[in-house]
Write a structure and sequence with these properties.
Pept_his_AS, cysteine-type peptidase activity, Cathepsin L, 124 residues
């Protein structure tokens, strides 16, 4: 079997990146509002994360240190549901995860699951 490669136009060129200040959920919120999706690392090793189906995910055992972070995801928005602030997060596990591939993760709860510990976006 041969692999055929087709040359296509470059859609964008990355010229660098910006790191959101570690642990700063307000800076992450401002980044999402002004730039768009932000790449983040989270603590996703809990069974409750893998089993998430609906609502605002709240796992008190989640860590927020760099050594706790186990999974990369994309923060695409934020909001409040029934008085609970959340981050709207796109996972990479396909549409069978959560709600069509998304999870609402707790926001403004001491950087729960390390959502703002390692956050960055590209400069294009």
């Amino acid at each position: 079997r041969q692999l055929h490669l087709q040359v296509v136009s470059v859609g964008a060129t990355c010229t660098g990146h910006v790191d959101i200040p570690s642990g700063d959920e307000e800076a992450l919120k401002q980044g999402v509002a002004s730039v768009g999706p932000i790449s983040v690392a989270i603590d996703a090793h809990h069974e409750s994360f893998h089993d998430y189906k609906v609502g605002v995910y709240d796992e008190p055992e989640c860590g927020n240190r760099i050594s706790d972070l186990t999974h990369a995801v994309l923060v695409v928005g934020y909001g409040t549901e029934e008085g609970k602030d959340y981050w709207l997060v796109k996972n990479s596990w396909g549409e069978s995860f959560g709600v069509n591939g998304y999870i609402k993760m707790s926001r403004n709860k001491n950087n729960q699951c390390g959502i703002a510990t390692m956050a960055s976006y590209p400069l294009v």
